Amino acid sequence: MAASSPPRAGELLAEARRAFREEFGAEPELAVSAPGRVNLIGEHTDYNQGLVLPMALELVTVLVGSPRADGLVSLLTTSEDADEPRRLQFPLPTAQRSLEPGTPRWANYVKGVIQHYPDSGSVAARAQVCQQAEHSFAGVPCGIMDQLIALLGQEGHALLIDCRSLETSLVPLSEPKLAVLITNSNVRHSLGSSEYPLRRRQCEEVARALGKESLREVQLEELEAGRELVSKEGFRRARHVVGEIRRTAQAAAALCRGDYRAFGRLMVESHHSLRDDYEVSCPELDQLVEAALSAPGVYGSRMTGGGFGGCTVTLLEASFTSQVMQHIQEQYSGTATFYLSQAADGAKVLHW
Ligand code: GLA
Predict the structure, then answer these.
(1) What pLDDT was estimated at residue 264?
(2) DSSP character string of 290-332
């Protein structure tokens, strides 16, 4: 059984240059790429000022462009999933006139980044601008994980991010005997979009009730002691976050010393906590995790990302990969899609 192989940067670059030439009648002057990411552990901790441990993927988005002198921005997408129109034009924002989100929806995030982009600034400032664009133009009150890993990912490494201080440290992940398998459940429950902001609010409420700035400041013992101050549901949500932050620190240490079994156990604990306490899993993700855990050569498996559908991530011995994919597909009631990726670089300029 083979993993699906979406187009890589080279192919996408050729397609983007072709589309640009057709549309604007000239070669683009600049090309850049930004990676997708998978979070190995540390779920729903970023907006609680906690720790996360994602890695950048070889799957990328490519963007080509040229400056223009008339103060206008022309955007064109070749994505098949994009809503119509696939091309649009608007003036650059000024102090008097801001860009607004609207339709087509695919352009909203790009507009948001243009609107908020600073004249200069460190990497963290750029990540925060992209996060701001998600909040105000795409309508997702996300944390800072995706933006930081997209900027700072490095080949052969996962990235431990402290979402309170924004300090990051690279954790080697290039052992050839190890594979990271991403399994797409190919379901996306509509619940996801409304539950994410709700979880965020619940966490903030618990932190407030305990007199803390965020759940990052809360120890498990303090949460237990303050049980009466919060709702039963709030308690379980916070127990996930507080435990997950600790698991992420332990997992990063396990990866550093090459203890993949310990890492795998923490992944499974993370999944159970997301399923039972945070309640962001779904039957399809649970099934995929169970299936992976009953396959040979698997260290650990868990849902990854926001939840209510989407993907699982599995750490396994590379030599078992096709057997594991076969086994998962046989056990899964739906149709799974598999991606294998090494830990890859963050956003970069492409040359041709
Ligand atoms: C989404 C958000 C991230 C993070 C995850 C959950 O992917 O974009 O910021 O909160 O959910 O860990």
Answers:
(1) 98
(2) HHHHTSTTEEEEEEESS-SEEEEEEEEEGGGHHHHHHHHHHH-
